[in-house]
C-alpha cells in the first residue's frame, strides 16, 4: 500500500511539474526572413526561464491563413503591415498588443560567381535585360510580402510589364534566396538581411527606399489563445537585448 501511495505521489508530482512547463511553450508564427535572428532571440528568451519558443517560419501570407484556419499560434510576426491588417480585420489578433518591431531593405542579388556588379537601380537600367535568358526570382507578388515590395519597385521604375513575364514566383524570400544560391536564376530580389547571411550570393544594388512601401515587421498576440509566456516574449522582442540581436543581423530598428 505504501508503495502504491508513493507511486501515485510521484505521478501526481510529475503531472504538476509538466503542466507549467507545457504552458510556457510559445508557438510563434514568423516571416521566413526572421529565421536566423528570431531563433537566436528565442534561445536568449529561453535562458531567462520565462518560456520556450516553438517557431514556425514561412511566408507571412501562408502563416496568416493558417491562423485564420485555426492553427494554435500564440504570436504572429509579419514581414508587412497588410497581412497583420488582414488578421486584425477578422479580429484574430489582440489589437492592444500590436507593435512595429523593426524594418528591412530590398536588394538585387546574383550568384557569388556572377560577372555582374555595380548595377544602378533606375529607369535607365533594364533589369530584364540584365537577367539575359534567365529569370528574376522573388516571392509571389500576389501574396508574399517581399514580392509585393519588389513589384512596387518595378512599377515605380516603369519596368513591371517587361519583368512580369520573366518573374520566377516562389512561396517565400528564403526560397528565392536558395534559387540564386544554387545558380538556377541569374538575379533575385530579397531582403538585405537574407543576402547578408549568405556567402553564395552577392548584392548588386539596394533598391532606393522611395520605390516601395517601407518594409515593416509588425507583431501581435493571436486572439483567443492567451499565454503569459507569449506576452513576456513579445515584451522581450521589443526590449534592448533582442533589438541588439536584430540590429546585428542587419534589421533596421524603429
Automatic annotation (TrEMBL):
One of its GO terms (biological process) is molybdate ion transport. Molybdate binds at residues 33, 60, 173, 191. Gene3D superfamilies: Periplasmic binding protein-like II. It comes from the Bacteria. GO terms for cellular component: outer membrane-bounded periplasmic space. PANTHER family: MOLYBDATE-BINDING PERIPLASMIC PROTEIN, MOLYBDATE-BINDING PROTEIN MODA. Belongs to the bacterial solute-binding protein ModA family. NCBIfam families: modA (TIGR01256), PRK10677.1 (NF007958). This is Molybdate ABC transporter substrate-binding protein. The lineage of its organism: Bacteria, Pseudomonadati, Pseudomonadota, Alphaproteobacteria, Rhodospirillales.
Amino acid at each position: 500500500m505504501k508503495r502504491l501511495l508513493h507511486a501515485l505521489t510521484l505521478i501526481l508530482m510529475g503531472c504538476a511539474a509538466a503542466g507549467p512547463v507545457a504552458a510556457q511553450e510559445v508557438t510563434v508564427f514568423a516571416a521566413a526572413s526572421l529565421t536566423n535572428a528570431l531563433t537566436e532571440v528565442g534561445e536568449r528568451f529561453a535562458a531567462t526561464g520565462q518560456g520556450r519558443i516553438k517557431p514556425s517560419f514561412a511566408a507571412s501570407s501562408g502563416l496568416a491563413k493558417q491562423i485564420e484556419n485555426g492553427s494554435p499560434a500564440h504570436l504572429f510576426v509579419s514581414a508587412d503591415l497588410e497581412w497583420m491588417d488582414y488578421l486584425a480585420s477578422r479580429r484574430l489578433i489582440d489589437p492592444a498588443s500590436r507593435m512595429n518591431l523593426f524594418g528591412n531593405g530590398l536588394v538585387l542579388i546574383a550568384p557569388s560567381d556572377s560577372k555582374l556588379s555595380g548595377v544602378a537601380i533606375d529607369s535607365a537600367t533594364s533589369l530584364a535585360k540584365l537577367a539575359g535568358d534567365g529569370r528574376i526570382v522573388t516571392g509571389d507578388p500576389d501574396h508574399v510580402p517581399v514580392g509585393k515590395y519588389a513589384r512596387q519597385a518595378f512599377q515605380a521604375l516603369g519596368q513591371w510589364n517587361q519583368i512580369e513575364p520573366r518573374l520566377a514566383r516562389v512561396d517565400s524570400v528564403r526560397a528565392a534566396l536558395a534559387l540564386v544560391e544554387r545558380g538556377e536564376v541569374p538575379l533575385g530580389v530579397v531582403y538585405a538581411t537574407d543576402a547578408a547571411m549568405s556567402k553564395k550570393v552577392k548584392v548588386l544594388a539596394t533598391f532606393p527606399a522611395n520605390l516601395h512601401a517601407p518594409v515593416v515587421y509588425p507583431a501581435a498576440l493571436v486572439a483567443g489563445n492567451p499565454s503569459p509566456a507569449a506576452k513576456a516574449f513579445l515584451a522581450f522582442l521589443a526590449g534592448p537585448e533582442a533589438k541588439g540581436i536584430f540590429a546585428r543581423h542587419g534589421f533596421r530598428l524603429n
